[in-house]
Amino acid sequence: MQASSSDRSKLRKTLIARREALPDALRMQHTAAIHAALRPLLEGLAVSRVGFCWPYRGEVDLRPALLAWLAAAPRRLLALPVVPDQVGALEFRHWFSDTPLASDRFGIPAPIGTPRVEPELLLVPVNGFDARGYRLGYGGGFFDRTLAALQPAPITVGVGFELSRLTQVDAQAHDRPLDWILTEDGCQPCQREDGGIAP
Which residues does the record give as substrate binding sites (predicted)? Predict the structure, then answer.
């Protein structure tokens, strides 16, 4: 049985409010732990093109860790999503610390005029998540459409704080599970329905 849209909306609001209320000192501590776990994950997966999201509504700010990763080797690329004007998939555009940005229709900064990038790995913010890799996003379905459109499919890593962990997310038919979950407790591969784990 799946939760209704109203139930999911209420849960989403509760989880976002909980994240936004996280005390600054604890947020900094958790963020530092996430940064420390992110670098070995990226190195171990041997990717060179990473898509991520600008921090929004108290989400984890990954920029310092990602810029350090970027500086460690040539030919690495970072990309931010650009939200389409109509329903569709996100488009990822090259980003660096001095890239010109403009706010999209949600008020989130997005690159202007930089080349398109096909990420090998996506760092996906989560409002809520479970051990299987199902997430509660913002309800727009952008990431699910993006993952369906990108071929080959990128590795996906859900990023959030442990306070967003749920026993189970009531997955909908179009929901695509993440491969990894990264929190202040470290990085774990997601458990698949067949009892296996994500690659």
Answer: 59
